[in-house]
Design a protein that fits this description.
The chain is an alpha+beta fold and about 200 residues long. Helices cover about 20% and strands about 30% of the residues. Strand 2 and strand 3 form a beta hairpin. It is globular, with a radius of gyration of 16 Å. The C terminus is likely disordered.
Length: about 200
């Protein structure tokens, strides 16, 4: 993951979550409405809820975040939960978080559910997908340009997920907003085996 606040602000209105347990990994990108102090407060309320309830069913998690953010400007959020043992991905989203999968033979349609958590948001659209370890998932807030293709950055294929996220943030972050990106990809094996 990589994140940074609006260039003119001290506080970041975006947040992210990465949690691992057993054979499960949960990642989330959260974008508080606007930027600055009020957006920061909203995204932190959402982040704390997700971290405390990472194993909760996604529809319940989104409802809980909505309750946690009622006294704030609200947030938009995307959550991806991977079960490595079953090679499955469960995905949910409300609002404008860019969500793209690269390397899959068939495009994955996560759908779009407009709304703001903390207001009168609709239930998220939760979808289930097979997950191939060679796939790459990229989630990012609208503080980054969405007009890009993975093949525009061939150096990222061999890069770690952390390095890829940093490179995308540097290349695509807008000067008018907070920006956050998460890249999920298999770790490259080192020479001689191992991860």
């Amino acid at each position: 993951a990589a994140t940074r606040p609006h260039p003119g602000m001290r506080l970041n209105g975006d947040a992210f979550v990465i949690r691992r347990w057993d054979e499960t990994v949960l990642v989330a990108v959260i974008d508080g409405l606007g930027h600055g102090q009020h957006a920061h407060r909203a995204s932190q309320e959402a982040r704390q809820y997700v971290e405390r309830h990472a194993d909760q069913e996604l529809t319940r998690m989104f409802r809980g975040v909505g309750r946690a953010c009622r006294a704030t400007r609200g947030v938009v959020m995307a959550v991806a939960r991977f079960n490595w043992g079953d090679r499955r991905l469960t995905f949910g989203m409300v609002g404008d978080i860019v969500s793209r999968v690269f390397g899959n033979a068939q495009p994955i349609d996560f759908g779009i559910r407009r709304g703001i958590l903390g207001g009168q948001a609709p239930s998220p659209r939760v979808t289930h997908h097979p997950w191939d370890p060679t796939n790459i998932l990229v989630l990012h807030s609208d503080g980054m340009s969405s007009r890009w293709r993975w093949r525009d950055y061939p150096q990222l294929v061999q890069a770690s997920a952390t390095a890829a996220a940093g490179s995308l943030l540097h290349a695509l972050a807008k000067d008018t907003d907070d920006a956050t990106v998460i890249v999920v990809k298999a770790a490259q094996e080192r020479e001689g085996g191992g991860a």
